[in-house]
Design a protein that fits this description.
The structure holds two protein chains of two kinds. Chain A is an all-alpha fold. Chain A has three helices and no strands. Chain A starts with a helix and ends with a helix. Chain B contains 14 helices and 15 strands. In chain B, α11 packs across α12. The chains are: A mainly alpha, B alpha/beta. Chains A and B meet through α2 of A and loops of B.
Chain lengths: ~80, ~425
């Protein structure tokens, strides 16, 4: 699943956010994501992709920034699992 | 010191009968002797919960609170928030603070169990499902002050925000402490009440082990809770949320608020003798303290909403305490235990019963004790109401006597 779709799904499920409003340039705060909800989102993301985010990660401000961050980590993760026998 | 009067200007609850139905429906059903107790049978393995219980099965947190807010709360806070919104709307107050300064307005909430369900969910995830981590939200879902914190945020209350955990007297204490703040002038308005969710598996099983729960199946559960009856078999647990808006009298009058009634006094005591065996002497002290605080004599009190849980030990002790305090007036003192119908909501019990008491004063009708066909002689000596009774009600008491020996009595007056 593409990162932005996961974000859409999560924000719809948790905050009843309109999926059409979850576009790359949208500010996460405007969609109702506060610091607690961001922690929960990160948790869900870690869980889904079996990865661990750095604890000093700079919090993304927009949907696009979050999606980019997630895609980079997903790519790292799949590269890692490809190299594992 | 200026003594201020404390008006009750808003009432709200998540009805155990039919969510969405209002206070009138709730009180009407109580007066008709209708039980909200049902048989609870869960799918827990290997041993389901199997007991009479009162739940709010049609309560939809997403509908009541909106999804973003509901998703940040455990069920005890959802029930509390829904009751608080409903009381606030009922009081005709706006949810946004607007022009008015709410820096002294506060929230005083009662809960015996707090976010126990959130922690229990965590244990299930870790121990049953083999997960290695928990959601970071578990902390803010589970904390005991979650309900009052959400309420203060949602209603813009800048004064004290606190929770009281005093077992079955939690919300009676919360209401009493809120009352004192308004009377002293510290707070102009206090949102108060309580909420609890005793269907947490470990909690319900522990109560069962204590051998104080009434048995019942699909056919018999509705009649399972029989306070003061010689056939009583124990209490019935229930979930719920109930809230009241307390307001400085002149403030309420100035804004043209409807005044349901008045909280006039509050008395507390501790039996200081035993964790679970109640003692009349301790209850007598709380009853007398509430009357003195309210400036009432026993001749002024026309109704008592009893703690009346339907345990073998508790009921006769409470009646003994009333006999001692009311003396020759006891025989004509109207007493009923509404727990026979709405069950024992633990930390929300005092709040739902305060609502029952103020509605009785408002409508001048005392609700009955249901299923009281055979009075236990040990509980005789007061006028037990087995049918709703329309009569002049000037003042009333609501008793809450908790495990731990903590006693709290609220004294209420009809609006005048």
């Amino acid at each position: 699943m593409k990162a932005i779709e996961l974000i859409r799904e999560f924000l719809h499920e948790r905050l009843a956010a309109d999926p059409a409003a979850v576009v790359p340039e949208a500010a996460l705060a405007d969609l109702g994501v506060d610091s607690l909800m961001m922690l929960e989102l990160m948790f869900e993301f870690e869980d889904r992709f079996a990865i661990k985010l750095e604890s000093d990660l700079k919090a993304p401000q927009t949907v696009g920034e979050l999606a980019t961050l997630m895609e980079a980590l997903i790519a790292q993760q799949s590269a890692h699992s490809d190299s594992t026998p | 010191m200026t003594v201020r009067r404390v008006a009750i200007t808003g009432l709200g609850l998540v009805s155990p009968y039919a969510p969405g139905e209002g206070l009138d429906d709730f009180f009407h059903r109580l007066c008709a002797g209708e039980s909200a107790v049902r048989h609870l049978l869960t799918d827990d393995q290997p041993r389901p919960l199997n007991m009479p219980f009162v739940s709010c099965p049609d309560f939809d947190p997403d509908m009541a609170l909106g999804k973003p807010l509901a998703s940040m709360m455990d069920r005890f806070a959802q029930l509390g928030m829904a009751a608080a919104f409903s009381a606030w709307d009922d009081a005709g107050l706006s949810r946004q603070s607007g022009e008015e300064n709410r820096d002294s307005w506060g929230c005083s909430w009662g809960t015996a169990l707090g976010g126990t369900l959130a922690y229990e969910k965590g244990y299930r995830e870790l121990w049953q499902k083999g997960r290695e981590r928990l959601s970071p939200l578990a902390v803010v879902l589970g904390m005991n002050n979650a309900a009052n914190a959400h309420i203060s945020i949602q209603l813009g209350l800048g004064g004290v925000s606190m929770s009281h955990t005093v077992a079955c007297a939690s919300s009676a204490v919360a209401i009493g402490e809120a009352f004192r703040r308004v009377r002293s002038g510290e707070a102009q308005v206090m949102l108060t009440g309580g909420s609890d969710v005793p269907q947490a598996y470990g909690v319900a099983r522990a109560w069962e082990a204590l051998r104080v729960l009434a048995p019942g199946n699909a056919e018999t559960s509705a009649q399972a809770c029989r306070p003061f009856s010689s056939e009583r078999r124990g209490l019935v647990l229930g979930e719920g949320g109930a809230a009241l808006v307390l307001e400085e009298w002149e403030h309420a009058v100035a804004r043209g608020a409807r005044i349901y009634g008045e909280i006039a006094g509050y008395g507390t005591s501790c039996d200081h003798s035993h964790l679970v065996k109640p003692e009349a002497a301790g209850q007598v002290r709380a009853l007398r303290a509430a009357l003195a605080d309210a400036g009432l004599t026993v001749a002024d009190v026309d109704y008592v909403n009893a703690h009346g849980t339907a345990t073998a030990e508790g009921d006769p002790v409470e009646i003994e305490a009333l006999r001692q305090v009311f003396g020759p007036h006891a025989a004509t003192l109207a007493v009923s235990a509404s727990k026979s119908m709405h069950g024992h909501l633990l930390g929300a019990a005092g709040a739902i019963e305060a609502i029952v008491t103020v509605l009785a004063l408002r409508q001048q009708i005392a609700p009955p004790t249901a299923h009281l066909d055979a009075l236990d002689p040990a509980c005789a000596g007061v006028e037990h109401l087995t049918q709703a009774s329309a009569r002049p009600l000037r003042a009333a008491l609501s008793n809450s006597f908790a495990f731990g020996g903590s006693n709290a009595v609220l004294a209420l007056r009809a609006a005048s």
